[in-house]
Amino acid sequence: MRIALIGTGNLAIHLVKAFEKCPQIECVQWIGRRATPPITSHKTPYFAKYQHDTQTDICLIAVSDDAIPSIAKELKDTDALVAHTAGAVSIKALETIPRKGVFYPLQSFIQHHAIDWNKIPICLEAENQDDMQMLKSLAHLLSKEVHEISEQQRLHLHTAAVFANNFSNHLLNTSQQITTKAEVPFSLLHPLISETFKRVLAYQASQIQTGPAKRNDLKTQEKHLSILSEKEAELYRILSQSIFNTHNS
Description:
Rossmann fold; 2 domains; 8 strands; alpha/beta; N-(1-d-carboxylethyl)-l-norvaline Dehydrogenase, domain 2
């Protein structure tokens, strides 16, 4: 399968690495605005513009959400199936392209952290079954978790992922700042953090909620608020109120 990849961000880098390890995939062109590719590649040719004369089966667009429509306009004459990789962008962003789809890996990617593609859910959308089958064939070369979902389902999944990943990471950053300020090692919280995520994978999260907000322990909450910065206290109050409302409505 001949693949073109547009983009040089974290996802694109991980895709190139995955493609180069798969003998059934030939990444025939990697396109980016950088003068040179962000990583050394011995198999994948790198270009500043999409090569329309290079035979390509699927072109994946792995760029920022806002850049997708402008790139789509540049690909309006391609015969390849073009799919973007965004969680919250409509397939209609590719409206100028005859054959279009979505190839959305549901994972957070950072450049130097290795991931197991075999376990990553890849969510697909296409306008016809032939193109869907082509996307499935590519996805199955990378992962066991391949799912055909609607645009609305994908938006819900992406929103849920923001809560599960981005928001939880921000809260852990706040936790790190609090321990740093107190001059205690954040590693003391590692067992608690590990157990928290183990539990939420085994049970419904609402069933295992604990803490002063759920039981409306105002005295403990006031003690916590007394050592927090103004911004931390604002976040603490919002989350505590949400927890209380969820379990006392």
